[in-house]
Structure formats: C-alpha cells, structure tokens
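Minimal example, chain plus arginine.
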Amino acid sequence: MASVPSLAATVHQRVSDALSAALPEAASADPLLRRSDRADFQANGMLALAKRLKGNPRELATKVVEHIPVAATSADPDSVIADIEVSGPGFLNITVADSAITATLAARAADERLGVPHAPDAGTTVIDYAQPNVAKEMHVGHLRSAVIGDAVVRILEFSGEKVVRRHHIGDWGTQFGMLIQYLIEHPHELDHKDQASSGEEAMSNLNRLYKAARSLFDADEEFKERSRRRVVDLQAGDEETIALWRKFVDESKLYFSSVFDKLDMEIRDPDVVGESGYNDMLAETCRLLEESGVAVRSEGALCVFFDDVKGPEGKPVPLIVQKSDGGFGYAATDLSAIRDRVQNLQADTLLYVVDARQSLHFKMVFETARRIGWLNEKTHALQLAFGTVLGKDGKPFKTREGETVRLVDLLDEAIDRAAAVVREKSEKLGLSEEEIAERGAQVGIGAVKYADLSTSASRDYKFDLDQMVSLHGDTSVYLQYAYARIKSILRRAGEGQTPVAHPELPLTPAERAMGLHLDQFAEVVREVAKGYEPHKLAAYLYQLASLFTTFYDQCPVLTAEGGPSQAANRLFLCELTARTLHQGMDLLGIRTPERL
Ligand code: ARG
C-alpha cells in the first residue's frame, strides 16, 4: 500500500520550494494553493506575504515563477507544472501537465486503496450510536444515529483507526416494573404465532403489552403498587424478575435486528451494551464523584453544579447523578460508561452520535468527567449532535394523526418507491422480479441514507421521498446510475481486462476536470475522517458523478476519435471513476449495484 501524493500536494511543494529559494525569509510561508476556474490551481499566498514584508506582490510573484521549472513540452515525463503565470495583483495561475494528471491517476489505480494512506495518528475511538430503547418502537429519530454512526465507523476504520462500537440501548428504568408485573399476570402476551415474521411480531406484541400495562397502571392503584414492588425486585437482582426482564430485552433485540437488517447495517450482539451493562459500576461512580468533591449532596440528591447552566430565574440546574430516593439515572450510567470506555477499552476518543436535543446532558456529563480526570488531554469526548428530521411541511416529522412515524413504515415506503423507479428502467435490462426487489431495496435504503448523510449532521433536514428517489439532482440514485453506466461501458469493452493508462496523450477539458477531481479522493477522505463529516464525502461523490456525466456526453469512449490508445485511456478513467464511486459509497454504507 503506497500513499500517492496528489497533484495539489506536489504543486504546493514546488511553489513552497520556489518561495524559499526566491526569498529565504519566506521559507515557512503558506502559498495558499486553491483549485481555480481560470487555471487548475491558484496560489494566493504571495499577496499576504508581500504585505507582511512590505514588498510588491507582483514582483514577488514574478521572482517565485523564475524558480519554478516548467516543462518544455507537456510530454516531458518529469514535469508536473505545464504553465505558470502571474495574474491580477499577484496571484499565480498554475496549469499542470496532462501527462502528470494521467500518471498520478495511474499510481492511484495501482493501489487497492486508491492511494488513501492510513492516518499516521490513528488511535482508538469508542463510538456510541444506534441506541434504540427496549420495548419501544424505533422511530425516525433513531434513523439518524444509526445511519451517521455506521458511516463514521466505516470511514474511521478505513482510515486505520481502531473502532469499538457501543449500542447504548435503553434497557433499564422503572417502566420495567410495570411491564414485568403485567407479564407475570398475563403470561402469554409475548408468545409468537408466526415464526417467519418474528421481528415485526415481537414489536407488535411489545406494543400491545406496553399499552395494556400502561392503562392498567394508570387506572388501578393496586397494580401500580405491585409494579413499584417489582422495580425493587428488579434492582435487587431477583432471579425470576431478571429472567422476565431479559425476555423483554431479547424480544426487542429480535425486533431491532430486523430493522437494522432492513437498513442493511451490521449490528453485532457483543457491541450491544445497554444502560443495564453499567449497573455494577453505578455505586462506585457515585462514591468517586462524592469523595473527590466533584459532586455534592443537595436536598438528598447527589449533584454536580455548573456556573453556566442555569434554569429560569437564574437558578442553577445541576446534573443529578443519584436521586434523593437512591435511584440512579441516565447521567450515572453515562458517567460509568465513560469510565469503562476510557479505563477498560482504552479509548483516546469517545464519540456520541446522539440527537442535538441531548446536548446539554452531554455537555454536563463530559464536564463532570473532566473535573474528576476521567477525561483529560489524552482522552476527549465529543457529541456528534444531529438535527431533527422534518416533514415536507418543515415541522418535526409526524403522521397525519400527529403520531411519531414508525421507522419501518418509512423504510418500506422508500423501498416501494425505489422498486417502482427500478422497474420502469428495467425493461431494457430484462431484470427478473427478484432482481427488481433486490435492487429496489438497495436503491430505496441508499436513498434514505444518502439524504441523511448529504446534509451536515448538525442541520435539520426534510424527509421527502419524491426528492430522495429522483434520478436527477443530488441523490444516491443518481450516483448509483452513474456507477452502473460505467460498469456497462466496461462490460461492453470486454470483461476482465484492466484498462491501461496512456500518460503521453493530451486530455480534453472534461477529462482533465474529472481527472483532477479523482486525484483529490485521498485528501477528501482524510478531511472527512478528521472532522467526522460524511456530508463532505457525499458532496465529493456527487461532483464526481456530475463530472462523469459531462465527460460521458463529450468524450466517446469505445469509439474514441483518437483511436485505440485514447479509447484505452478513457476506459482507464472510467474504471478509476467507478472504483472511486464504489469505495466512497461503501464508506457511506450505500450499495452500488453493478446493473441498474
Ligand atoms: N437511548 C437513547 C435515546 O433513544 C439514546 C442513547 C444515547 N447514548 C448515550 N450514551 N446516552 O434517546
């Protein structure tokens, strides 16, 4: 595996070298190289530098140019820069040689990682994502954590980071007293009639039971009392009670895994460590916090106070670690999870893919962990806070009856819509019903994931299926069709042979534009991994597909006007584009069918 320097990196280096040769005191100045419309690159650094040194920027730029070797002919194999000129108040416009573009791309193509190096500073990240709640339906809010989390896992692992996944499911709390008590009194409520649809059936059983238990709890004081006693049994670890509690957890997991399957997402059982997984640590966590003075008793509760967290009338709002009745809540569990992740799992980075509406909770939890030293310069924590999924009307997504939308219903609808699109286009391909169904799922789920991943996580977005499965515009379907089209060209050229690059050939503008973009892949992946920003990868891929569309309009491939070597070079560009799209979409967790 070799790291392939991009043309941008090479040009940057050449200009830096020329800068320090022309002006020794500028040795460490940044040439501020950018992609440009007027040439391939523009270097703007001369302006600020001349200003700082009280010189004339055009003169400085001219001197720099004198120190940059330019190819006599663009076929000169060693030359990267074909043309460089001073423009405006002192910019440099730089054009790279066609041969350099093709040669660099050939080096990327020769690497199975497309020239993407492993990050030099890789460490261990524990990522908390895809965390639904036991005995509750998954709703649209659970979609984002799963989709964004899965993409971030893939991107980090590809970058060489060691990633530990944690699905912090909500599997503990007083509501289980009521549920378990109801099940004891109605023992067959969770039985299955139909093995085949077990995930869905599990959820509908749980739903029915939840509703029935709730209304009994609200109506019947004696049941309420029995439920309360059941909570005490549960917390005391009473065997029969725990066995029934586990039944709820197992039923829910059956359901979760059917939803994650539909989402085409792998959730491994050992990574599911719910709130209950930290029960043994809670008392110790509280003791450590209290002994260190980080937490104090206030009206019987164990609390952590913050100067900048105030409620109405300026009253401080504390983080409650232990309630006055001795019960532990969400914060105690999260603080214990931090201890586990730092001390046992040896994490350098803790990542939480959780709704922005929980930001205050995490802010207080992280600050508490910092005060006691569980988090420090070596280990830091970050919430990847995501925005709300909105309906077409721009309000939080609800059904017409005003209820939260079930995630499975949304996914099924997306798959149906996508299957209709695939069916319409499938006549030419002669796809079977089975193939239409399979691709419908890949396109529909891809559409849902892409819509989520292509806007920056922190922003809200509108869930609009019409837009999501459109063949035009910034959608996964557009990217999937671009990929399938390239695959069909490659098949027509003859399966199994690797197209050969021809750096000696001049490139057309469409080829150059696509080539320069392909060359940026490694840099984009690095930036995306560093900032946890899948939307930048989506934007890169969309642009690549658009550049391919232009290329395909303007440059015949199999019937290239310049003969067989130009056809080969164009096939080479096609293939590298396909591999880049495939790799990029894979990092987003989206399939790219070979035929569509
Ligand atoms: N189960 C929670 C919910 O559905 C999300 C859990 C987030 N993770 C955590 N460590 N608190 O809102």
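The longest helix spans residues 564-588. The two ends are 32 Å apart (CA to CA).
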